[in-house]
Amino acid sequence: MAVLKRSKQRDSIKEFLTSTKAHPTADEVYIHVRQEFPNISLGPVYRNLNLLAELGEIAKITTPDGADRFDGYTQPHYHVLCTKCGSLTNLEVAQGIPFEEMANKHFPGIIETHEAMFFGICEKCLDK
After folding, report:
1. Which of 5, 21, 88, 128 has the largest CB neighbor count within 10 A?
2. Residue 26 pLDDT more than 70?
3. Is-contact 12 52, C-beta < 8 A?
C-alpha cells in the first residue's frame, strides 16, 4: 500500500470532526474548513471525508434524508436522529456483545459488528 501524503486540509477536517459532538454534513464541514482554507472547493472536502472514513479515522453515517453525516468519534456507539429537526446525536448506552451473540444465534454466518440508528424527537423539539 502506498504511503498517504500528509495534507493540511485533511488534518483540518479531522481536527474539526474530533472537536465536535455534532455530526456535520459534508457541506457543513466545507463551510468550517473554508474559514482556514478560503480557496478550497467542495470536491477535496468530499474526497478527504471519504478517505478518512475508508481509513477508519472518522465514521460516515448514512441517514434516511440522504445527506451523509460524519463523526470524529470512531468507538462503537449508537445515534438518534430527530424526526422533527434532523439533528443527529450520540446515544450513550452500552453497546455490543449480548446483542451480537443473540443475532449470531439466528444467522447462519458470523456477525462481526452491527450499526443501529434510533429515531425520535430531541429535547429541543420537545421543548418547543
Report:
1. 88
2. yes
3. no
Question: Which band of pLDDT confidence, cut at 50, 70 and 90, is reported for residue 108?
Answer: very high
Q: Provide CB contacts within 8 A for 58, sequence distance 6+.
A: 14, 17, 18, 49, 52, 70, 71, 72, 74
Separation of alpha carbons 124 and 128, rounded Å = 7
pTM: 0.85
3-state secondary structure of 90: strand
In sequence order, the 6+-apart residues with CB closer than 8 A to the CB of 98 are: none
CA nearest 18: which of 81, 95, 75, 88?
75
Among 42, 45, 92, which residue's Cα sits nearest to residue 70? 45
DSSP, res 37: -
pLDDT band at 113 (very low <50, low <70, confident <90, very high): confident
Report the alpha-carbon distance of residue 109 to residue 125 in Å, rounded: 41
**pLDDT tens figures, 56-99:** 999 999 998 788 999 999 988 889 999 999 999 998 877 666 77
Task: Write down the pLDDT at residue 116.
Answer: 83
